[in-house]
Amino acid sequence: MIARRSWFITFAMLFGFAFLYVPILSLIVFSFNESKLVTVWGGFSLKWYAALWHNEPILHAARLSLLVGVVSASLATIVGTLGALALSRFGRFRGRTAFALMLSAPMVMPEVILGLSALLLFVTLKQLIGWPAERGLLTIMLAHVVLLTAYVTIVAQSRLTQMDESMEEAALDLGARPWKVFFVITLPQIAPALMAAWLLAFTISIDDLVIASFASGPGATTLPMVIYSKMRLGLTPEINALATIVVAVVATGIALAALLWRRDKTLD
After folding, report:
1. CA 30 vs CA 26, 122, 224, 228, 246: distances in Å
2. CA nearest 261: which of 204, 192, 202?
3. How far, CA to CA in Å, does 142 sit from each of 39, 79, 122, 146, 201?
4. CA geometry: angle at 155 spanning 69 and 62, to 5°?
C-alpha cells in the first residue's frame, strides 16, 4: 500500500512538472529553429536572435521595461522597508491594523482591479489638478510601486522580526540617534533580505502585463505588452527568442533572490 502511494505521488509530481515546464522547454528549443514555422523543426539556427537584435520596436520596449523594473523595484524597496520598520519596531499604534492591511492588500488583490484602480486614479487626478498630463512611463512606475511594495514589506518584515533587537537597544541607550542605529546596525543585517526583495520586485515588474496595460499610454509599451500583441497576430520564432531571453532573465532574478534569502537564513 505504501509502495503504491509512493508510486502515485512520484507520477503526480512528474506529471505536474511536465505540464508546467515542457511548454517552456519547447518554446526555448524552437527559438533556435531555422524554419519560420514555430511548430516545424527546420534545423538549428541563431538567425532569429540576430533578427531580434535588429528589431528596434522590441529593443525599445525591452529598454523601457528594464527602466520601469529598476526604478519601480528601487522605490518599492525603500517604501516597503519603511513600512516593515513601522510594523516591526513601533509596536502597537493607532491604525496599525489598517496600515498593515493596506500594505499587504495589493499582493492578494487581482491585478485587473489594481490596474483599473490606477487608471481611475490617474484620470481623476488629471481632471482635478491636470496631472498627469498623459499616461506613460511615470504612471506605469507608480502603479508598479503600489504592487511591489507589498512583496518587499513581507520579506523585510520577516527579516526584521527574526533579528535580535538587543544591539539596537544598546546603541540607543548609548546615545545613538535612531537614524544612525538603522544605517549602522539594522541595515547591514537586513541587506541580503532587501536585495532578495529587490530582485523579486524587479522580476514581478518585468513580467507584469495587466497593470501596465491599464497605466500605460501612447508611446509607453512594455515588453510583455509587445509580446502579447505579437501573439495575437501570430507567433514567429523571433518571439520565441524574445521569450527565451525573458525566461532566462526572470529565472536568474528568482535564483539570485532565493540564494540571497537562503544565505541570509544561514547567517542567522
Report:
1. 6, 41, 19, 18, 15
2. 192
3. 39, 12, 10, 7, 13
4. 10
Counting Cα atoms < 13 Å in the Cβ hemisphere of 162 gives 14
**How many angstroms separate the CA atoms of 97 and 186, rounded?**
24
Cell (9 digits) for 156: 523585510
Pick the closest to residue 208 from 224, 229, 232 (CA basis).
Answer: 224
Calpha distance 138→71 (Å, rounded): 10
What pTM, to 2 d.p., does this model score? 0.83
Tens digits of residue pLDDT in 23-67: 888 888 888 888 887 777 888 888 889 888 888 888 889 899 999
CATH top class, domain 49-267 = mainly alpha
The SS3 assignment for 56 reads: helix
Is 151 within 8 Å of 80 (Cβ atoms)? yes
Find the distance separating the first CA and the last CA of the chain, reported in whole Å. Answer: 41
Query: In degrees to the nearest 10, what's the CA dihedral of 30, 35, 37, 41?
Result: -50
pLDDT band at 265 (very low <50, low <70, confident <90, very high): low
60 CA to centre of own chain: 20
Query: If you compute the radius of gyration of the chain from its CA atoms, what whole number of angstroms results?
Result: 23
Asked if omega into 132 is within 30° of 0 (cis), the reply is: yes
Task: Give the 3-state secondary structure of residue 224.
Answer: helix
